[in-house]
Design a protein that fits this description.
With 638 residues, this protein is an alpha/beta fold. The strands form 4 sheets. The protein has an 8-stranded mixed barrel with strand order 10-11-13-14-15-16-17-18, surrounded by 6 helices. A 5-stranded mixed beta sheet has the order 4-5-3-8-9.
Length: 638
């Protein structure tokens, strides 16, 4: 029956794995439960394998029934490992959650057959048997069990191959290492039955998984030991996938900024620990606590009993009716509170993050120390729908880029174009940029939208140049959120180079209002863009305070007059004087002037007389798709 040295080594490694599993913070999700079952099955197999050897060498003191029982137990554990690993892999790549009951049953049916075969073996002798002299024999049924394990290994490999792009490189590597470690040990033992090495190979593979895929340290906040944003996102995703019900309690300390400035770091740490201990001491099942930042937390309870929810809300609210005491100091705190029922209020985890964001930026009119529902905070249902529609559009080609011509005021010939993003939702229909762009800025989707617009714009300009159509450059809008990126200029430069474009081919627009919010950041990014050869334009001038002195701190190449100034010049002498003054100032400092929203011949004539350089508006053309823009250019040239 072979020596048990490798089994003993496997048991030691597996015990270490189990201790490590329970000693570290982990997410209470299906992935953790299946992996724990995999560890226990392997430990059972290694222990039973060692026991079979010990019983075999002491046949005189053990009855045949005991021998059959121990060997049966070994085969039960051993033939559970392959299907468990297959399920673990499917859970990791989220495929398992999409399986129907019939498909899950079909997947596990071979395992059920293996278990039935093993349990019936004491009577059928199909898998193994003992002679009258108590000699152990492997029978034909063992090949059947091997084939089932091999089938699960093939399913695992196929599934991993199909979903590897969805997984991180570290996850794919750990899963791939499991198979050669396991299969290699299996092949060695198949040809050398005396060398009981299978479970040792599996135990090492599981240690690799434990230190990689099931290493949840990246989801832990280093300061408090709570789960961080990434951990919360993964936990909410698991709730979505399993269609579970839960209660989410969001807490945002209202005077957290004051504490950040007025309290010493060591005192803030002690205060936060006291807050967490008192506020989240809820007796709820499968309690999960996450920290967004100092003073911003989420508690998730997997219960839906109305009485418990009411009790938890009242207990947490009462925490803010008295000061928090740390040492000899008293800290009176107040909070904005929001309760969300999943899935009734929030159909997916993103809504919880949006609700947290809404609490963080909500105004002073919100009641403190009182629970609000999702509908009562500024995250209106329309905003939720728009946010979901924006993400869906990014994933399913719902975004398009149109181009509006910019022409010479003097000659009417085409000079440039402005790229304008458009969103059409399958459920909401067309959504204007005035609505979905602010939502995207709050949710963080603006970066993906910006990348999409930049790529489509560069591709368009490259294509139109290849056809010989006249277009000097392209205007692309940048959100203030994008402008704050530290590597923005490098990313834009790489995208332009990818399409064979140079710096002078692209001009990036930032609104006057955004430029006034953070002039130093704007100046830094503008200088970086200019160093790469790009130019910057101030968009929508006239909408904000129109402080030209502040604007002049930013090195911009052109300025775009808002349509409100153009309309005002058509309606009154004062409007014409104001617009003329602005144009005169900018012309004297050598800045190109573009007028937006021009719709009539009278407006065009006046703008030409005061020295406006370029015109943009419906008088010449509305924003056009790439194909229609090319046709328009051909018509102008003809």
């Amino acid at each position: 029956m072979g020596e048990i040295n490798y089994d003993i080594a496997a048991i030691v490694v597996l015990l270490f794995n189990i201790v490590l599993f329970f000693s570290r913070r982990r997410l209470n999700i299906l992935q953790s439960a299946v992996f724990l079952a995999l560890l226990l099955a392997t430990l059972g197999a290694a222990s039973a394998d060692a026991a079979t050897v010990l019983f075999y060498v002491n046949t005189d003191i053990h009855s045949p029934a005991t021998q059959y029982a121990v060997n049966t137990l070994y085969y039960l554990f051993q033939n559970t490992i392959a299907p468990l690993f297959c399920v673990f892999l499917l859970v990791v790549d989220n495929s398992w959650y999409g399986f129907s009951i019939k498909r899950k049953t079909a997947l596990l049916l071979p395992w059920f057959a293996a278990i039935a075969t093993i349990l019936s073996n004491p009577w059928t002798r199909f898998v193994f048997s003992f002679t009258d002299a108590m000699e152990y024999r492997r029978n034909d049924g063992l090949v059947f069990l091997y084939l089932i394990s091999l089938m699960y290994a093939v399913i695992s490999l196929v599934s991993l191959g199909r979903t590897r792009k969805k997984l991180s490189g570290r996850t794919v590597l750990a899963l791939l290492l499991f198979l050669p470690f396991t299969l290699g040990a299996f092949i060695i033992q198949f040809f050398n039955p005396q060398l009981l090495i299978i479970n040792f190979g599996i135990s090492l593979s599981e240690l690799i998984i434990l230190l990689s895929i099931n290493d949840f340290d990246v989801f832990i906040d280093g300061q408090t030991g709570l789960f961080n944003r990434a951990g919360l996102a993964l936990y909410l995703e698991n709730i979505d996938l399993t269609k579970a019900k839960a209660s989410v309690y969001l807490v945002h300390i209202d005077n957290k900024q004051f504490l950040g400035y007025s309290v010493k770091p060591e005192e803030a740490i002690a205060l936060e620990k006291r807050m967490i201990d008192e506020i989240f001491n809820a007796p709820c099942r499968k309690k999960f606590i996450a920290r967004f930042d100092f003073g911003e937390y989420a508690l998730i309870c997997r219960h839906r009993d109305p009485e418990e929810i009411t009790e938890n809300k009242e207990r947490m609210r009462r925490c803010f009716s008295r000061p928090f005491i740390v040492g000899e100091k008293r800290y009176p705190l107040h909070a904005r509170l929001c309760h969300i029922s999943v899935p009734e209020d929030a159909s997916n985890g993103r809504i919880v993050f949006q609700a947290h964001r809404s609490l963080s930026v909500s105004d002073w009119s919100y009641p403190l120390d009182a629970w609000l529902g999702l509908s009562e905070i500024s995250l209106a249902k329309r905003q939720i729908s728009v946010s979901e529609a924006t993400k869906d559009a990014l994933e399913n080609f719902g975004l398009t880029v149109h181009f509006q011509p910019i022409v010479s005021a003097e000659t009417g010939s085409i000079v440039a174009a402005e790229a304008l993003v458009r969103l059409t939702s399958k459920t909401l229909g067309p959504i204007g940029p005035d609505e979905f762009i602010p939502v995207a800025e709050r949710s963080g989707l603006i970066h993906a939208i910006g990348d999409f617009v930049l790529d489509r714009s560069c591709a368009f300009l490259s294509a139109i140049r290849a056809e010989g159509l006249p277009l000097r450059y392209l205007d692309i809008n940048l959100s203030p959120v994008q402008f704050a990126q530290f590597n923005l200029a490098d990313r834009i430069y790489a995208a332009a180079r990818n399409y064979g474009l140079k710096g002078q081919d692209l001009c990036f627009e930032i609104t006057e209002t955004a430029a006034a919010l953070s002039p130093l950041a704007m100046m830094r990014t503008t200088e970086e863009l200019q160093a790469k050869g790009f130019s910057v334009a101030i968009d929508d001038f006239g909408v904000g305070n129109s402080n030209i002195v502040n604007l002049l701190q930013i090195p911009f190449a052109s300025i775009k007059l808002d349509r409100s100034l153009v309309i005002a010049s058509s309606e009154s002498d004062a409007g014409r004087v104001e617009l003329s003054s602005f144009v005169s100032i900018f012309k004297r400092i050598g800045v190109a002037v573009v007028a937006e929203g021009v719709e009539t011949a009278e407006q065009l004539e006046f703008l030409k007389t005061i020295g406006v350089d370029h015109i943009q508006g419906y008088y010449f053309s509305k924003p056009l798709s790439a194909g229609d823009f090319k046709d328009w250019c051909r018509g102008k040239r003809a």
